[in-house]
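Notebook p. 47: complex prediction with NAP.
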Amino acid sequence: MSQTTAHSTQTPEELDVVIVGAGYSGIHQLYHYRKQGYSVRILEAESDLGGAWWWTRYPGARVDSESPFYQLSIEEVWKDWVWTERFPCRDEVCEYYQHVERTLGIKKNIRFNSRVVSAKFNDTLNRWVITTKDGFVVHPRFFILAIGAASKPHTPPFADFQSFKGICIHTASWPEGLVTKGKRVAVIGTGASGVQVIQSIGPEVKHLTVFQRTPNYALAMQQQKLDKEIQQKSKRLFPDMFRRCRQTPNGFSFDRYPKSLHATTPEERLLFFEDLWTAGGWRFVTNNYMDIFSDQAVNDEAYFFWRNKICERVHDPVMQEKLAPTSPPYPFGSKRPSLEINYYDVFNQPNVDLVDLTQCEISRFTPSGIQTADGVEHTFDIVVLATGFHTFTGPYTDLKVQAADGTDILEKWANGVYSYLGMTVHGFPNFFYMYGPQSPGACNGPTCSEVQSDWIVGCVSHAMKQCFTRIEATREAEIEYRRLILELNARSLSRSTSEPTNFKGDLAQYGRLCLEVTDDGYRGFVFSSQVESRALL
Ligand code: NAP
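Predicted complex, structure tokens below:
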């Protein structure tokens, strides 16, 4: 396997596999191809390992998946690693990635500072032609996109946005050393990043105004320090635990409670809800009654338990109504809740306001702040955009993926996304993506990415062993898969009225579907060798 770095003037390297992205998904892929002796390289836009965790530096950035589930299931890696907290902070996750390097020595197979700008399939070579921003070109047989869903920050088109003279930052590019203490700060957005920034800077800023469009049904994190010895002892169970995570709806080892809420007494459900709340983290959603997502009455009961918990913490009835409305604005758990430590307490501070954007929109930015529809001008030193990312097909706007005839994948998806298994696309042979359009969404990231990664490795290895030079999903297979995506969306309480972005079934169901496809001789795929590839397709 070549370890050298090629330059544009040299003949492009011909590798078996090129992976884009050095987060969990990309590293898992690299590890398995290398183990099987394939030539493989990761191209990573940043200067170190960690994917989104590398560049996520806003104050309070922390994992929302509890230990020990948020890690690779590779034994060489987990056997010598212990976490200090149940929900690790960003720096600890980055330290974990360095442990991955010390254990596996993967950096030698990674080209850092290599932002891929285009990837085009070459029909004659049956290889991808991948080009980075600095002109590096490589020709792999297989091209794997492992860049996650949150790679392109979303800045809403606010009127007169450029006129603001203070500091305006997106949570995705928090500058090192930015001081918020004693400043007048705005945070726009109350998703995962917004909640963490607000609870982190809230206690120390001079004044904080939160601009909220949709309330976050944030759950009590119940953070804990972890004991090293207890963790070491529990490791004998890790192989079973990692297997179990794949058999549950959300990629943790725990499952929904196998009982309907309707089969319980009010006392029983109150005590059950209290237990889940005390257990903390996602448990109030993931371990709740089996009908929490299929029965609106059950869902409402969970909502009102949650609402009471929040109202016990937030003193002002007006603020209570903004953060936890009497009438649920959307079904409980249908939008990703955040985990919080002191988020709701911040809103009891006299120096913290919340502008409900459903009642009073942002009209425009001004040189000194933000003007709202009621004519009030709010003045700030710093505006934080916690407005998320262009998810779904967003990452494909900067990284152009093209079929052999030049068709861009976004052109193909202009009238709706068609993929097979949320991993492959007809017309784009030898290409696999992970954690992208039509992949599973609401689950523990590492479990989901390993389910997909194992399947892709199996498929690529099958092709390599049989000397096939080309794999392609059929059009019929992706039409059938899209039908399933729409059906699952229609049945879900979290159904979107626009195009569903994810596979809205359980992760376990998704895993079974992928295995069925394999067991059925890679149903829905055409494998071919170089000479016959055109004829077969
Ligand atoms: P996000 O969850 O998509 O939240 C974006 C927020 O910005 C939402 O509250 C959204 O409101 C609001 N917003 C968007 N456009 C707006 C506009 N024009 N005006 C006002 N508000 C607007 O984004 P994120 O918090 O950056 O998180 C992105 C993803 O990263 C998460 O889903 C999660 O998977 C991951 N993440 C994970 C962690 C963790 O594990 N701890 C931490 C951070 C991020 P609406 O709800 O009304 O759209």
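Notes: The longest strand covers residues 137-145. The radius of gyration is 24 Å.
Next step: compare against the earlier run before touching the bench.
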